[in-house]
Amino acid sequence: MKQLTVSLDERSYDIHFDLSLARSGDWLRSCCPKAERVLIVTDETVEALCANVVQGSLREAGFAVTLLSCAPGEESKSLSNLGRVYDALTDAGLTRSDCLVALGGGVIGDLTGFAAASYLRGIDFVQIPTTLLAMVDSSVGGKTAINLPAGKNLVGAFWQPKGVLADMDCLESLSDRAFYSGMAEVIKHAFLADMGLLVLLTDCEGKRDLLMASMAEIVGICCAMKSRFVTADERDTGVRMLLNLGHTLGHAYEKAGEFERYTHGEAVAAGMAAAVKLGEQLGVTPPEVQPALIDMLREHRLPTEIACSRADYESAIGLDKKGEGSRIHLILLTKAGEAVRHSMTKGALFAAIEMAEL
Predict the structure, then answer these.
(1) What's the helix, strand, coil split of the chain in %, to 5?
(2) DSSP-assigned beta bridge partners for residue 104
(3) Are residues 166 and 185 in the same domain?
(4) Do residues 326 and 342 both lie within one domain?
(5) 163: three-class secondary structure by DSSP
(6) I need a labelling partner for 206 at 20 to 30 A (CA). Which of 31, 35, 94, 338 fits?
C-alpha cells in the first residue's frame, strides 16, 4: 500500500506510506497549494533527529518556514504550550491560507492540531508522525486536544489534517520502550476487528526485527481500519468509540503515574488487560480471550496491570468523554476480533473494578 484515502467529503485526505521526509516539501505543496508560510511544531528529540531534513525540503518547495520546539512528553499538551504555538503563529505572520506541520508523536500532533483548529477559527495543518503510536492511531481521524490538570484531552476539537506522511524510516530511531508502546495500539486494532493482523503479530512473536520487516503492512492495516471507523462516525458518537478499547481505564493508569511513569501505550495495554478481566466478570468476554491478550501484551514487553487508587479511577472515569450523565460506555471484547459498547452506570463500573481487584 502506497497511500490510503480517508473519505470525508470536502475534508478527505490521503495518508502516504511511500514518501520520505526528504520529499515532504513537494508533498506539502500538493496538500496546501495556497500556503506561503509554514510553522513546524516539534519536540526537542525529533528536532535533533530530523527537523533539518523537513525544514530544508519545505524551503526548497518555496515555503517560508518557522520552527517551534517543545519539551518531549505529555506535559507539553498544556495551555501554556498552546499559548506558545499561538505566539509563534502570530510572530511568523501565518494567515488562514497558511499551514501548520505537526512533526513528532501523538503529543505534538494533538497540540498542533488543536492550535490549527482554533487559530483564526481554523487553518490547515498536516501530520508527519515520527512514532509508531502516532502513525497507527493519533495522526489519523482528526481528534485534537490538550490536557488540563484535571485530566487528559479535556479541551479539543475535531479538525482533520490535510494529509499524513508516514515515513517508516523514522521508526528506526525509536527506543525499544517507545516502539513497543506503539505496538499497544497495533494490538488493540488486531483484537478489535482484524484477525489477519492478529495472525501476523502472532507470527512475529514480538520480535522487533520481524515486526519492522512487516511494518509498512502493519501500519497500512491499522490506518485502513481506523479510516473505516472514522468515515462511519467522524464525531465519535457511535461505532468509533470502539477504538477506545483500553482507554477508559488506561487514562486512570496514566493519571496514577502522574503522566510520567507510564507511556500512553503502556497505560492502554494495562487498560485492555483490565477490560478483558472486567468483560469476563460481566459475562461479555469469553474466558479464552484473556490469556490470548495477556500473552501477546507480555510478548511485546507491555504491562498487564498497573496499581491504581479508587480516587484515580473515579477522576478519570468521571471525566471520560464516553460518559453520558451517570452512565459510561465501556468497550469490551466479545471475542478476539470483535468488540461492543457496554453501557453501565459509573457506580456499577466502580463496583466491578473493586470486585475484580483492579
Answers:
(1) 55, 20, 25
(2) 129
(3) no
(4) yes
(5) strand
(6) 338
Task: Examine the fold and report which residue of 149, 173, 197 is the final residue of a domain before the chain moves on.
Answer: 173
Task: Please give the Cα distance from 259 to 106 (Å, whole number).
Answer: 14
Strand segments, DSSP code E, in the chain are 3-6, 13-16, 37-43, 64-70, 99-104, 124-129, 143-148, 151-158, 163-165, 323-324, 327-335, 338-345
β-bridge partners, 330:
342
Helix axes 264-281, 289-299, angle to 10 degrees: 170
pLDDT averaged per 10 residues in sequence order, the chain, 358 residues: 93 96 98 97 97 98 98 95 98 98 98 98 98 97 94 94 97 97 98 93 97 96 96 94 95 90 96 97 96 97 95 85 84 95 93 91
Give the range of the structural domain holding residue 14, as residue numbers without chain letter.
3-173
| Element holding 299 (H helix, E strand) | helix 289-299
* pTM greater than 0.85 (yes/no): yes
Q: Letter for the amino acid at 181?
A: S
- Measured CA to CA, the distance from residue 64 to residue 290 in angstroms comes to 52
Q: Residue 150 is placed in which grid cell?
A: 484535571
Among 116, 124, 164, 114, smallest CA distance to 35 is for 124
CA distances from 54 to 26, 127, 159, 178, 322 (A): 11, 12, 23, 22, 37
For 318, other C-beta atoms within 10 Å of its C-beta total 13
Are 233 and 132 contained in the same domain? no
